[in-house]
């Protein structure tokens, strides 16, 4: 049986977790011999330089909320490639995927959802549109067990349509740095070699909880020679900078902005922190930090428990609880040997359960069931 083409349909090529994951996944699957295309509706094309040059790509150039011309371009690409699957990455592309199905042969329509917790009336209205579409998908892929259970129950999605595929990380690309690499990274950033450095990689949006993180970082239990690196940009940047100044932390909180390659910033760090208050499901940034051997302070949201395992539970705190986060970070910082032990345990868990090979194999099984893998393929 010959493998049919899979099209990854994204809303945009902005530098976000979901978008980066599928752009890189497409490149790896292509190199392994699987037929895969990437299409995006519009918006930022920041990830275009990361898209494999030999992966067929389709800029749909959406105009307005719903663009018949963008749908026509998608239909043309689908007819030409004869896809076996269209994977709608997050919500908005589902509208176009469903419209495509009504006008073209489409054996399998898949939604990949990377959101766990939705809050407020705006989100309720949001799901009034998307929940019926989710129930019409052939497969709905979730990033964690908790997310699957929650969404399957709340939005009445068929159990046989639900599947969990964990994110994976290239443990070679994110291997632990040498002491020389660490010192060099700190020197470039103007950080003292003996500073206790925390890093958070996330867009500066309300649901990411940076305000709680800065409040926790201001706590008196942490060492005086500490620094916080915030890698990412977004609508809350000015507000968070004002908060840091108000707390007397202007010289200790460094706003790095958006970075195409965050590895240099992580090399300088001792601890990774993710303070997400909602939405987060299975953050790639947290996996990459674990592969690098960084201990992590995380909020207990989305798939955090799947990521850390039983040994990591002490570092999970309730979302929005700055005091609990401060206590967890203080314990990591002040208990002898804790940083090294927690970092080693984090990397070991990634190598055991969350590699790109494991993720790619799961996607191959979903997209091309019963098809023999090409030579050199991941599955």
Look at the structure and give the mean pLDDT: 86
| SSE string, helices as H and strands as E | EHEEHEHEHEHEHEHEHEHEHEHEHHH
The CATH architecture assignment of the largest domain turns out to be 3-Layer(aba) Sandwich
Task: Please give the order of strands in the largest beta sheet.
Answer: 3-2-1-4-5-6-7
Q: Calculate the terminal CA-CA distance, rounded to whole Å.
A: 15 Å
- Radius of gyration computed on alpha carbons: 21 Å
CATH superfamily of the largest domain: Glycogen Phosphorylase B
Anisotropy-based shape = globular
Please state the structural category: alpha/beta
Record field, number of beta strands: 13
How many distinct domains? 2
Spans of at least 5 consecutive residues whose pLDDT stays below 50 are: none
Profile the largest sheet: 7 strands, parallel
CATH topology term of the largest domain: Rossmann fold
Beta-strand residue percentage: 15-25%
Q: Helical element count?
A: 14
What's the level 1 CATH class of the largest domain? Alpha Beta
Helical coverage, percent range: 40-55%
Topology:
Elements: E1 5-10, H1 17-31, E2 36-40, E3 57-59, H2 68-81, E4 83-89, H3 92-101, E5 108-112, H4 120-135, E6 139-142, H5 145-154, E7 162-164, H6 179-189, E8 196-201, H7 210-217, E9 226-231, H8 237-246, E10 253-257, H9 263-267, E11 271-274, H10 284-291, E12 296-299, H11 304-308, E13 316-317, H12 322-334, H13 338-353, H14 356-367
Helix pairs in contact: 7-12, 10-13
